[in-house]
Amino acid sequence: MSIRAKTLDLERFLPYRLDILAESVSRSLSRIYKDKYGLGVPEWRVLAHLGQYAPITAKAIGVHSRMHKTKVSRAVAALEELGLLARSGNDEDRREELLSLTGKGQAAYDDLAPRAADFARHLLDDLSATERRVLEHTIDRLLKRLERNSWPASIRES
């Protein structure tokens, strides 16, 4: 008689559900920027960071967005090829370049940012103001918990 490990109920398993939610939101949002500007998700995320924080380094974008440096690098190259991004020297660290939007990149951001904000508002339309605050608070707490990375040994051990 074998002892079967307790199985996961994927329909209730929070990491799975969050992944499905994130992927669905990302895919729906991508319709706003993909067709008109030819951007994928990583390019959009870099463009959005540049629109809010430029000038900024690729490394800083990776840290803030939690994107792998290779993915950031490829997105930067794609945005540069599309004429949406410019590089300049960084006087504080000559090994890094500062990234910013070109005029064309700023126009794309100015077009996309309000549409993305409208998308986010529309996504939450079915939630009450209280539910929205609770959702924001819950997301913040979960992110802080993940940053602490303090898991019991029973989870860490293989």
Note down, in words, how this protein is organized.
- The chain is mostly helical.
- It has one domain: Winged helix-like DNA-binding domain superfamily/Winged helix DNA-binding domain (Arc Repressor Mutant, subunit A).
- 65% of the residues lie in helices and 8% in strands.
- The chain has 7 helices and 3 strands; from the N terminus they run ααβααββααα.
- The protein has a 3-stranded antiparallel sheet.
- A hairpin with a 7-residue loop joins strand 2 and strand 3.
- The chain is globular, with a radius of gyration of 20 Å.
- The protein starts with 13 loop residues before the first helix and ends with a helix.
- The model has no long low-confidence stretch (mean pLDDT 91).
Average pLDDT rating: 91
- Stretches where pLDDT is under 50 for at least 5 consecutive residues are none
CATH architecture: Orthogonal Bundle
Q: What percent strand?
A: 5-15%
Number of helical segments? 7
Helix content: 55-70%
Within CATH, the superfamily carries the name Winged helix-like DNA-binding domain superfamily/Winged helix DNA-binding domain
CATH level-3 fold name: Arc Repressor Mutant, subunit A
Strand order of the largest sheet: 1-3-2
For the secondary structure, the number of strands is 3
Question: Structural class of the helix and strand makeup?
Answer: mainly alpha
Largest sheet: 3 strands, antiparallel
Note the run of SSEs as H and E.
HHEHHEEHHH
Rg: 20 Å
